[in-house]
Fold these 2 entries.
Entry 1:
Amino acid sequence: MIDDYPIPIACPYCGSRVIFTSNAVIYGREYGNGRCYKCTSCDAYVGVHNGTKVPLGRLANRELRELKKQCHSLFDPVWKLNISIKREKAYRCLANALGIPMNECHFGWFDRDMLYKALFVLRQPEWYKE
Ligand SMILES: [Zn+2]
C-alpha cells in the first residue's frame, strides 16, 4: 500500500522552488528509479516510489537524511534478522510507541522532532515486544 505524500512545491528549508528531475543531479548518475524532487537552491531532496511521481516522504536536508539513516540502522535489523518479528509488526510497535497511526509511520514522512522521538524509542531495549 502506498499512501501518497503531498508533492513538494517549495523547499521547507530555504523556500526555493522544488523541481521533479533526474537523481543524477545528486549522485552524478541515475540510481534506482532515477527520479527525485530537488530544491533548486539547497541540497534538500527526496526520492519517489518506483514508476510514479509520488514522493517517498518530505524533502530532506542533510540533517534529516542523517537522522533517517540512524533510524533505519536501528529499525531494520529487528525485522531483517529476527525471524519472529515481521516488518509489519515492527512498524505497528513503533507507531504505537509514537502514538501515531500505522499508515503514517514512515521514516521518510517524519519531521525532525518525530525522527528524534523515533530514535529515542528505537534505543529502548526490546521496544518491539508487545
Ligand atoms: Zn532548499
Note: The mean pLDDT is 94.
Entry 2:
Amino acid sequence: MERRDFVSNIGLTLALVCTAGLAACSKGGSNDPGPTPPGGGNAKLTLNLGSDLTNVGDFRISNGVIIIRTGSGNTASAFTALSSTCTHQGCTVATFNNTSKLIECNAPCGHGSRYTTTGAVNTGPATAALTAYTIKVDGNVLTVS
Ligand code: FES
C-alpha cells in the first residue's frame, strides 16, 4: 500500500468513527430521555388531582417522594412533598399516619423515626429533616420538582 493510499484510508476510517459516534449521541438514540412529562423535565412526580389525593390525609410514596394532602382545595399550599428517604439510614419511609400527622419510618427496614409534615424530625433516631420539594398545581395537575 502506498503512503498516499494509507493516509487516505486512515482519514476515511476516522470520518466513519466520528460519524457513528455523533449519531449515537444524537436525539433519538439510546440516550434519548423521551418526551417531556407534564410539568417539565425536572418533575419527580406528576399527579392528577381529579383522582389522586382527593381527601385530607391521603398520601402517595413514589419515585423518592412522599406527597401528602394536608388541606382542602387544589392549591400547592394544600400539599407537602418531601424526600421519602429517611435521613437515619436511608430506608424509604413507610407511611403517613393521619391520626398523629406524622410520617413514619417503620420496621422491617426503619427504626421508628417520625417526621412532621414539614419534614422536621419529631422522633429519632434520625437527626436531620427530610428534604422538601417544590409543588406546583395547574388545574388538576400537580407536579413535584
Ligand atoms: S432508616 Fe428510618 S429510622 Fe432508621
Note: The chain is about 15% helix and 25% strand.
